[in-house]
Request: fold
Amino acid sequence: MSDFFSQRLRLHQKKMMKYMRYVLNDHFVLVCLFLVGGLGFYYSNLLKELPPDFIWGLPIVGFLWFLVLPAGKLVTLIEPADTTFILPKERQMDGYLQKGLSYSLVFPFVLIILIVGISMPLYVVSTGDGFINILWFVLMLWLLKYSHLTILRMVCYQGIEEKARQLKLLWYVASLAVIAVSLYTTPLAGTAMAMVVTFFFYQATKAENRLLDWEKMADYERSRLYRIYQFINLFTDVPEIEAKVKRRKYLDGLLARITFKQSNTYLYLFMRRALRGSEYSGLYLRLVVIGGILIFTLQDFLFATGVAALLIYLIGFQMIPLYGQFDYISFIQLYPVSQKTKQASLQKMIVSLLVIAAFIFAGVALTQLSVLNSLLMLAILMGEIALFGWLYVPARIKKMED
Reply:
């Protein structure tokens, strides 16, 4: 069964790599590089302003580590059909689940290295210790994550719901204690304590002579993959994500403002799809809210403007796939409307939505920046929207049609 997991894993990775070329496109990578550079510069300047005895440094680092620990679920790659076809192999599933647990450690390990690496400068400023302690911290958090995954593996079996809840609560308490010991005593003591905790949970989560809960495993795996597909769906269409349409009668007033004439045919269709389709309206609202919250926390004009510009780009980029939303409907091909008009309609809709977002971002910036800086931010965003709407969108549509 270990070989069977490896076979499924290869198919899963092949599928994910197919989607990654859409997620890690040139534009997104470039924007992320600028964002990371801006965050690094802002973080560096912030650390220089902190006093040597900054008492909140260790609590912030500990909270960040504790927050990131639960990230990463157990990968089983169980499919609904397995409840029938693999059921006879149930006694051999221990090796399968152990293989899944080992693979599940990869993403948390990379995430832990990243988060600890980011937080180490704050730790050094707050304590005066050296960066060499990063090795102990990574090992300590990785051991705690392993114990967390053993609990998730135990959940795959029947009749352990109450025990699983108790162990999860105990794990959170133990993890918080281990992190506190590592930060406020010595990293070596915290790592030794993490080893004891890991050994305890490894023994406590053994599910000997218990039957697997196949339906629960299939549901957990479906839920895990759905969250991954939701992220990928921000960049490209994913067949596994079913589009949901809601009536939203309260938005009919916006559609009524579109005049009834031939040149607005596609504008009406695009706007109606954007408002009623949960994947587009939800995406738009989420990015606007996230952008508003980020800008509200920033007092640096250049950094706040960079974040706003990034969100404007992401919102517009996610709206471009609307162009082909109705191509599968045959009677729309009979519309006496040219492709040029269709493209102009999409441009007009995207520009309208981006202008609304820009005004919201500039309005939020007023709470932290001066009126002059807020107006300057709005002017920069308007220039970006003009370039995006009238240069980038046509080029992107042309690439889609090729």
User: Anything to note?
Assistant: The chain has two domains: 2-232, 249-401. DSSP finds 16 helices and no strands in the chain. The mean pLDDT is 83. The two ends are 44 Å apart (CA to CA).
